[in-house]
Amino acid sequence: MNEVIQAMLTRRSVHGFRPDVPVDQKLVDQIIQAGTYAANGRGHQSAIIIEITNKALRDRLSELNRQIGGWEEGFDPFYGAPVVLLVMAEKDWPTRVYDGSLVMGNLMLAAHALGVGSCWIHRAKETFELDEGKQILSDLGVQGEYEGIGYCVLGAPAKEPGPAAPRKEHFVYYAR
Question: Is pLDDT above 90 for 149?
Answer without folding.
Answer: yes
